[in-house]
Amino acid sequence: MNVDLFDFDLPAERIALRPASPRDTARLLVLDGAETRDLIVRDLPGQLRRGDLLVFNDTRVIPAQLEGRRGNARIGATLHKREGLRRWRAFVRNGRRLREGDTIDFGQDVSATASEKAEDGSFILTFAGDEPVELLLERAGRMPLPPYIAAKRPTDAQDAEDYQTMFAAEKGAVAAPTAALHFTPELIAALDTAGIGHATLTLHVGAGTFLPVKADDTDQHKMHAEWGRIDQATADRLNATRAAGGRIIAVGTTSLRLIESATTADGRIHPFDGDTAIFITPGYRFRGIDGLMTNFHLPRSTLFMLVSALMGRERMQAAYAHAIDRGYRFYSYGDASLLLP
Fold first, then answer.
1. Of 105, 176, 255, 277, which has the fewest Cβ atoms less than 10 A away?
2. What is the mean pLDDT of the chain?
3. Could you tell me if 135 and 55 are in contact, meaning their C-beta atoms sit under 8 angstroms apart?
4. How confident is the model at residue 4 (pLDDT cuts 50, 70, 90)?
């Protein structure tokens, strides 16, 4: 499909630079079949059914942005996928000044050697020393805010809390599963009381999620792979929910993509442990999920293509126009939508 079909105009003032506080007071646009409702996230229990199951991503964001030097050249690196115990694939700023075999000094006794330059300009960075890389990043790295926020203000101490979900446990993401940022213990308690359960899986979100689609046609776009896991117990619970008549509601596109990667054509969800590069565009037949809660996405992005596949492109274009007109806040720290086809 032509990528221009997924474009729309978004005023810059609609981009949220801070999250709502409390988190569950963010606005919630509900698309339920043909109906559209303007609510807040705290209203979520009344929009779902007893027996439904929300599925969250329990990945934890690591301080994956680094600033360093190779000689006199300043080099920026954003880690996006672990490739080994000490090896990470990274997008590099000022990469024309970097060659395979060069060492980058990130300060704080943290350095890495560059190798295996890829077609997209990324490098493998192999970190020196014996300390776990996570400890090195805690020392020298910073929280990797999305570029549309980082371009407008510096990362600060508040982001270390704001950019983690209440489910964050498994270290490895370089971007937050932002739909889950809206949840609080109080909201989860209200959902439990309403008979709406929750489960977790793990998908380590990569920085590729923010990359624009540069191709003119969706068939020409290549997704970056991300690692994910669904264990046997979680797969069994998801299957049991559907067998009992409940719906699987993915919280975030990362949860949705992993569930769909783990689901066979007969609709059965299996354990999963490995990489997924699934790219969902209109025409895709969803097999493992029945709904999605997600934030508002970039124009021409793979995520706007995904929600268009779920609800229909014209429906989503109209919904986003409605959200812009009504003053909804967009992107990672913005408001949410509940999509029930």
1. 277
2. 95
3. no
4. very high
Count CA atoms closer than 13 A to 55's CA, side-chain side. 31
Question: Which pair of structure tokens corresponds to residue 93?
Answer: 């700023």
Q: What is the DSSP letter of 334?
A: S
Q: Please report which confidence band the pLDDT of residue 142 belongs to, taking 50, 70 and 90 as the band edges.
A: very high
**Residue 156, CB-side half-sphere exposure with 13 Å CA sphere:** 6
Query: From CA 132, how far away is CA 113, in angstroms rounded?
Result: 16
Identical fold at 3-61+161-340 and 65-141? no
Per-domain boundaries in the chain: 3-61+161-340, 65-141
Contact status, residue 144 vs residue 78, Cβ threshold 8 Å? yes
Residue 102: CB partners within 8 Å, gap ≥ 6?
70, 113, 114
- Which residue carries 């559209």 as its tokens? 36
Distances 325 to 28, 220, 316, 319, 329 between C-alpha atoms, Å: 14, 33, 14, 10, 11
CA distance 106 to 141: 9
Tokens representing residue 167 in the block = 């489910």
**Residue among 298, 79, 114 at smallest CA distance from 205:** 79
- Per-residue model confidence as pLDDT tens digits over 194-216: 999 999 999 999 877 666 788 89
| C-alpha to C-alpha distance for 48 and 196, rounded to whole angstroms | 7
Fold of 65-141: Thrombin, subunit H (2.40.10)
Q: How far is 116 from 126, CA to CA, in rounded Å?
A: 10
CB atoms within 10 A of CB 119: 6
The string of DSSP codes covering 216-285 is: SBGGG--PPPEEEEE-HHHHHHHHHHHHTT--EEEESHHHHHHHHHTB-TTS-B--EEEEE-----TT--
Q: Nearest to residue 238, comparing CAs of 206, 272, 189, 277?
A: 272
For the cut 80, the answer to whether the pLDDT of residue 43 exceeds it is yes
CATH among 3.30.450.40, 3.40.1780.10, 3.40.50.300, 3.40.50.10540 for 3-61+161-340: 3.40.1780.10
Q: How far apart are CA 67 and CA 69, in angstroms?
A: 7
